[in-house]
Each structure stands twice: as structure tokens, then as C-alpha cells.
Amino acid sequence: MSLVTMKELLKRASDKNIAVGAFNVANMEMLIGAITAAEKLDTPIIIQVAESRLAFSPLYLIAPMMVEAARKASVPVAVNFDHGKTLENIGEALKYGFTSVMFDGSSFSMEENVRKTNECADLASKYGATVEGELGVLAGNEGDGDVAKSLYTKPDDAVSFAKEAHIDALAVAIGNAHGKYVKTPNLQFDILKEIHERVDLPLVLHGGTGISPEDFQKCIRLGVRKVNIATANFEACLEGAMNLAGTEGPKNYFTMNEAMVECVRENVEKHINIFNMR
Ligand code: 13P
Fold first, then answer.
1. Which CATH number describes the domain made up of 6-275?
2. What mean pLDDT, rounded, does the chain reach?
3. Which of 26, 83, 108, 202 has its CB 3.0 to 4.6 Å from that of 50, i.e. a possible disulfide?
């Protein structure tokens, strides 16, 4: 069915009042697992790789694989460059055919974030790609879900940012964090509600790993149209290999490949089913 822009999938999600899952992948097994899940459930997805992970999954290898997998998929798939930090890598991803880029300017001042996000948007517009911006600081990298370090997105700032930054989607910080939550996340739904009421953009929830189905549902009712899942996917891949080690059957690369694909598929399916619920 094909490679599509993220904008298209966000619109579909808004029309249906659901969210589209954005799944981080690091290798071929994770990629196949994610696409297989989407095809099985006949649901579009976003596949993405974060700039911070390029040391493990070099762009020149992972990017062609992701774009080709999306082209060949039987459901619409968008390919997103997650947490882009440099115009150089964002530009590379776009050249490989990514249909969406996120610029993570959350560590900059508002003015600097707007300026750099717009540089990224100018570049993305040459490729017809979708742009996601971020406002507010999310704690943690994958593996560190310390919410204490986060700074919530201020609704007033979100309104200004949405006006000045040329973005198609806005990632918000409402008590969500990357990685495993050290304690149950306490999402600030009042902040999300206010941003949703005042900002006419699809909202993005990062730090999806460990959020309960009920909280996902609440976020979706309050305008979240894209949910990012990374850590749970990496863990599913590892779990596939670890579980295989404990079984009696044959152990070789090929059985490991199948075990990893299967665990990632299950994880992605589980999340798609939650995000598709109305
Ligand atoms: P998790 O690792 O918590 O799932 O967060 C994913 C994410 O937001 C990637 O940008």
C-alpha cells in the first residue's frame, strides 16, 4: 500500500478519534515485527529511528531498509526521523526518503527552538515531509524514566510555538518520560486538555512505554494523535532472544530471528489495539 507522509496518518487518526502508533526500530527483526503487526491488524503505522540511536543503527543501513519496508507494506506506513538534533542528519534522512522528521529543540529557549524548528521545516518542505516539533522537556533516554527531571509544556507557550513554528504536530511534556518509568506516571491531563483546546495541531505523546491503556485512552480523547513506543520494542526484541535461550529447541541465528520478530510483533499489536480503541 505504501510509504505515506505522517501528516496523512495524523489526519486519519484525527478523523477517527484514535492515535497512530510510532514504533522505534533498530534492526531488521524489529522492523519486520512492526510491519507484520500493522499488516495483520490492517492498520497504518509510523516506523522511526532516533538520532541518538544512529551509533547502533547507522542511517545509511537502517534508512534504506525502513523506507523499502514501508514501500512494500500492505498498509500505509510513514517513516519518521525521531528526535532530530542536527540539520545534517535530518537532511540525510530526508534524502533517504523519510516522510517525516521531528526536530527536538526542547532543550533550547523558545526563540531558539522556533528558529531551529523552522530551519528544519524549510528543509523538510523541499521533500514534502511532515514536521513534528517539541515543547517542554521530557525526562530520560530509553532506559531512564525519571519523570522528576521533566518540565511540563506551558499551554501559553504551546499557543505561541504553534503560531510561530511551521510544524504539523506538537510533542508535549505532561509528566511522560522516555524509558522505563521509575514509578507510575502521573500524567497532567489538565495541561493536555488546555493545550488541546487552544492549539489546533495533532498532539504527540512520547515516552509511551509503561503508560496504562486507560491513560492512553484519556490522552487520545484529549487530542493525542501519535504515540511513540521505543523501550518496549527494544525490550521485546531482547526478550525474544532471551526466551529462546531457555527453550530446548534448536538455537541458531534463524530461530533467534524468528523469536525476535515474533516478540516485537506481539508488542506492536498490543499497542495498536489500544490506540485503535474508541
Ligand atoms: P519510550 O522509550 O518510553 O517508549 O519512548 C519512546 C519515545 O518517545 C521515542 O521518541
1. 3.20.20.70
2. 95
3. 83
Would you place residue 139 in the very low, low, confident or very high pLDDT band (cuts 50, 70, 90)? low
From the CA of 91, how far away is ligand 1's center (Å)? 22
Using the mean position of ligand 1's atoms as its centre, give its distance from the Cα of residue 247 in Å. Answer: 30
145 alpha carbon – ligand 1 mean position (Å): 10
Instruction: Verify whether residue 157 is a known catalytic residue.
Output: no
Closest ligand 1 atom to Cα of 145 = 3
3-state SS track over the chain? CEECCHHHHHHHHHHHCCCEEEEECCCHHHHHHHHHHHHHCCCCEEEEEEHHHCCCCCHHHHHHHHHHHHHHCCCEEEEEEEEECCHHHHHHHHHHCCCEEEECCCCCCHHHHHHHHHHHHHHHHCCCCEEEEEECECECCCCCECHHHCECCCHHHHHHHHHHCCCCEEEECCCCECCCECCCCCCCHHHHHHHHHHCCCCEEECCCCCCCHHHHHHHHHCCEEEEEECHHHHHHHHHHHHHHHCCCCCCCHHHHHHHHHHHHHHHHHHHHHHHHCC
pLDDT value at residue 140: 57
Measured from the Cα of 231, ligand 1's closest atom is: 2
One of 82, 104, 168, 215 is an active-site residue; which one? 82
pLDDT in tens, 154-204: 999 999 999 999 999 999 999 999 999 988 999 999 999 999 999 999 999
